[in-house]
Amino acid sequence: MPVIKIARRTVAAIEIPKKPVVYYDDSLKGFGFLVRPSGSRSWILEYRPGAGGRGIAKKRVVLGNPEAVTPEQARAMAKDMLAKVRLGADPAAERAEARAADTVAEIAGEWLSRHVEPKRKAATAKLYHGVLNTHILPAIGSRKAVTLTRSDVAKLHSAIARKSTGPKKPDAKRTAAKKTRGGPIIANRALAVIKAMFSWTIDLGLLPDGTPNPASGVEAFQEKGRERFLSSVEMQQLGNALRMAETEGLPWQVKLDGPAAKHLPAAEKRKIHFDVHSVAAIRLLLLTGARVREILDLEWQHVDFERGMLRLPDSKTGAKVIVLGAAALTVLDGLPRAGRYVIASSSAGTVNEKPRADINRLWRAVCREAEIEGTRLHDLRHSNAAVGAGAGLSLHQIGGLLGHSQATTTKRYAHLAVDPQRRAADMIGAEISVALGLESNVVKLDNAQRGKRA
Question: What is the pLDDT of residues 165-184, one digit of tens each?
């Protein structure tokens, strides 16, 4: 193992290795700096308890990480601990005993506060909090972390996959009194959270040495990628429904046999109008292929009309630029400015202005009117890419427009770019049909006919 003078500068220059490496201090015996391939870094102290000597196995104590503890502080802690060892103390054994008492809820709190919240995006942290509070902690939060087994995690994984209905959370707004939770997808997310949480905890030595990760080896449920693309006809229906929403209004969804049916207004008056900003949000989602939060969180200062682009300081993949077409620019140019956000919320123009939370109410009503129920807002992003693929754009171009950080993400649209292949098939088929004497019976399908037959 390498020996160095442990200081801020030398530690900062250490690169991530292919296997765990301990850099020992050249002046304080047993004091070192552990670097793992995962990128985690820790101050450590190794010592021989009791009378010492080579016949006694070494023990290791983690003193902290460089993000929270400076080299000077770590060195002082190591000196203090070595002094206690000479007096007969065994810090590693004492810590192991204390860690064995940590519950899953306690290590979850450490993981969230020390790792997730400072290092992950707010949306990711919110998802992890939700999965823990809704599915994991109510079931195993009081369990001692070291007693959790692979069998326990597998049972929890299966239990979450079975959807259950329960009361809504006390602080939940605008939701039904009963809420259905769970399913295979969220079960897989819970499994990933448990695995990541224990991996971080074990890496930092917050659990006794040799503690296995109870989520390792638990097989996740198979997830089928969902591909839903609006056809040209469905886009027309969507456009008509959006125009109705901001002009004459969309019809209510009512129960004519319900207890309040006799108090309903006349059928022609059962209309609900939606504001121009929420309608524009849906149009922009389809025209730009942006993600929902990218549009709802969009501020006017991020819109560059001169260059025709959106300059987002942050997104799922970091800072990005969205190039705007003429249609999207027209929608943006026609929106009244009511505050800092492009899609104005009820708090627009106030000191504590916040972005709009969602547009789900409008989306549900529009989907009913356009007869595309079951379509998600995120499917508008897929539909934007599908139009580009069908028009012959390369996957590189589509990925650039959507802001994909990896080319593999864009490959899902490869099967839609069929026009070049279709032209090749037509050329080959034309030659063969002449030889077979079929040229008079060959029918050429235009895009409209293809859509009808599909």
Answer: 666 666 655 555 566 788 99
